[in-house]
């Protein structure tokens, strides 16, 4: 699509003093939204401002968007939480873990819930989210990739759930999708050793849908977006809803749910 036709919204999804810290760019082109972590010089390290920016994008995403691509500028998808959080000075305007430790525990839990909101919306049935992952996806970076429905990765990808090595737990919504993708034993192995998962293993254990050469990542994502947009929008939403609910339902319950969704589809198509 010609540049002129591309609808660009949002620019940097930041405002106020935290802008430079958030470093998240949003572009919307018709049914496709692209979110870019844009602090390549800091390997797209994430702060609370990043997560607020992501949450705001989720809240204001135009209704026509069907596919959301999440990518990182530069050599790494994201090197995880900004390590300044571990220093006494912290991230300007956003505090540090030392200051959080001195605050009421409930306050910090609430802050974590707000941060998680930046990740959770990526699973909405109305959209399909794709993480385009190259280089390092560490800690919060790994969890951001896990927050997406699909992961297309470059052959230099290295996933690492580093939190336990730093005395923390992964708390940005990553534990459930990790277990669901790779199983409990493998998730324990990956998290409790904080080891690196490279492209071949990521593909083998179901973390990645596709591995491509680094230079082909954008093209591979474009191909997937085209495929996803080729199906009926309302059927896609209903089908994602069904698939998401499948694990928690019995076969009988799932069959009932299929019937309900299909009756609604038939009504919409032929009623
Ligand atoms: N937070 C803040 N700054 C970072 C981070 C980070 N997480 N990661 C990298 N940077 C900065 C570096 O300080 C450096 O800045 P400088 O140029 O001003 O010195 C710049 O990004 C480039 O980093 P390098 O280390 O030089 O890049 P390299 O490609 O050699 O290594 C790597 C990349 C492996 C990602 C390395 O930077 C690294 O290990 N980063 C820390 C990863 C980490 O422990 N993250 C926390 C995980 S836990 C969690 O997310 C909750």
TrEMBL record:
Region of interest called Disordered, as start-end residue ranges on this chain: 1-21
PROSITE patterns according to UniProt: ENOYL_COA_HYDRATASE (PS00166)
Alphabetized Pfam families for the sequence: ECH_1
Record Gene3D superfamilies: 2-enoyl-CoA Hydratase, Chain A, domain 1 (3.90.226.10)
Family the entry assigns: Belongs to the enoyl-CoA hydratase/isomerase family.
PANTHER family: DELTA(3,5)-DELTA(2,4)-DIENOYL-COA ISOMERASE, MITOCHONDRIAL, ENOYL-COA HYDRATASE
Protein's name according to its UniProt entry: Enoyl-CoA hydratase/isomerase family protein
